[in-house]
Structure formats: structure tokens, C-alpha cells
Amino acid sequence: MILASTRRELREALASVREHGLRIGFVPTMGFLHPGHLSLLDLAGAGTDFLAVSIFVNPLQFGPGEDLDRYPRDLERDLALLEARGADLVFHPSREEMYPFGDPEVTVDPGPLGLRLCGGFRPGHFRGVLTVVARLFGLFRPQVAVFGQKDYQQAVLIRRMVRDLELGVEVRTGSVAREPDGLAMSSRNVFLSPAERADAAGIHRSLLRVQDAFEAGERSVGVLRERLVLELRAYPLLSLQYGEIVHPETLDPVDPVAPGGVVAVAAHCGETRLIDNIILPGGAHGVVA
Q: Into which CATH architecture does domain 187-279 fall?
């Protein structure tokens, strides 16, 4: 496995890959990997010849007071996991190497989609996400890139950016990886205390109760959202930031709720912000490949 820490090392490593016409599968990460990240490598490897990963905690997507400085990091462990999973190359640049001229003045505007859900509470977050992803696409020029469904809004925006800017990358999305009790795997779960960890699992349980009501025939967004809020109240350490049911592609509110609608939640558990979602059954849409 090749480890590149500079753009020059990355270009040199990829030169022979392109020379031989190999298809590149790419998984961008911020590191501190868990089994959900590793499952994305499997998806990126399907139908490609060279598996590349980036590890970069992108400062552009963190706002004031967010957890940039304390975001968990363990490069040695990450590299061991990636090599065991079959990664061919890992790019781990410094901030100065990723942004050699300082923070970019030309950025990618997410448009109205970036103001919904998480974007309403994290100003500038998705501008930072799309800008770094566009830069990584330019550096790697992959044929395939893979992202996780847990960050549903992010996946929708990246697909839209690729479509609107004709970037020529096939974007695949892997399903949410979960702990045995249903908690969505996240690098930030390490911050949870034992009591917080127990209540955090209530997010997924609450989403499932909404799905149960939908499968029983309920279609009113008001009723389904009330069910979600009531279920979450059973977990006193959770503080709901938003709970919405939206269209899978536009992220617009929906009423009545149709198959394929996305139930999305953001909540704080102590000081840790957690997100999760489910796609209601029966739809032909969504971002899961």
C-alpha cells in the first residue's frame, strides 16, 4: 500500500495507474475509521482496478465552536485497517499541502439544498464539503467515488455537484453501518459517555417507530413527525435539533409522505452531535447504490 502525503507523491503514484488505463475507485474520509468506512472500500472496489483512500480532516467544513481540534485521529491504526482491507493508496496531506495557497477563494456553492436540514444549523458546512470533494476529485480523477448514507444530505449534494458541473464521476452510496443496538457508526461516537451511549441508540429506535407507523398506513407528515418527537423524548440525554421527512432527491418537505421518503434526524447527546436517517420502504428513489 502506497502512502502519499504530498500532491507530488500522489501524482507520481497515480501516473502509472492512468498509464495502464486502470479504473480508480476512491473513498474520501476524515480518518478514525470504523467498519462503516471499510464497507465503503468494498463498494468502491467493485468494478474498479485501483482502490484509493484519502484521510484529511477538512477545516473548511467546520464552523466556529465545532470540534475541528478535538476530532479523533489515529493514523497508524487507520493505515493498518486500510491495508488489511485492500487499499492500494492512501493520501494523507497536511492542511498546507491540501490548500497550498491558503483557504481557497473559489469555492463550490451548494445552492438552496445546502441550506436545508444540517445546512440550516451549520452555515458554510456544505460549501466546505463540496469544495474539498471537488479538489479531491481533481487530484485523483477517479472513475468511482463512494460516500455513506449516514451523511444523506452530503451524498445528495455531491451527486448534484457531479451532475451540474459534469465532473464525470460515478457516485455510489453505501448503506448506514450500525452497532448491534442500531446506533449509526460514527467517528464521534468515541466522545459519548456510557450513559450517553445508551441513549444515543434511541435515535435509530425512534426512526424505526416512524417506519412502523408508515408501514401500518400512516401518511401524514405531521402525525409521523409527532411520533418521532415523542419517541425521542424517552431518551433524556438526547436533545433534538431537527427531525424531518423529506423528498429523497430535492430534500423538500413532503406531505403526504410517500414511499422512498427520507426520515432525517440530528440530535445532540451531551456535547456530541449525531445524525441518522432511514429511507421509508417501497420507493424507487434514494441515494443508496
A: 2-Layer Sandwich (3.30)
Specify whether the CB–CB gap between 135 and 26 falls below 8 A: no
User: Average per-residue pLDDT in the chain?
Assistant: 96
- Where do you find CATH 3.30.1300.10 in the chain? 187-279
* Close Cβ partners of 192 (under 8 Å, ≥ 6 residues apart): 200, 269, 270, 272
The predicted-structure confidence for 27-86, as pLDDT tens digits, reads as follows: 999 999 999 999 999 999 999 999 999 999 999 999 999 999 999 999 999 999 999 999
Residue 101: Cβ within 10 Å count: 7
Distance CA 152, CA 117 (A): 10
Strands (E), the chain: 2-4, 24-29, 50-55, 89-91, 144-148, 170-174, 238-246, 262-269, 272-279
Helix or strand (DSSP H, E) at 44:
helix 35-45
- Count of CB atoms within 10 A of residue 246's CB? 22
Instruction: Beginning with the edge strand found earlier in the chain, give each strand of the sheet holding 262-269 in spatial order.
Output: 238-246, 262-269, 272-279
The predicted structure's pLDDT at residue 43 = 97
Q: 266: exposed, middle or buried (C-beta count within 10 Å: 0-12, 13-18, 19+)?
A: buried
Q: Answer whether residue 3 shows pLDDT above 70.
A: yes
Catalytic residues: 37
pLDDT in tens, 94-145: 999 999 999 999 999 999 999 999 999 999 999 999 999 999 999 999 999 9
Q: Write the pLDDT tens digit of every residue in 14-27.
A: 999 999 999 999 99
Question: Could you tell me which CATH class the domain 2-174 is placed in?
Answer: alpha beta
Instruction: List where CATH 3.40.50.620 sits in the chain.
Output: 2-174
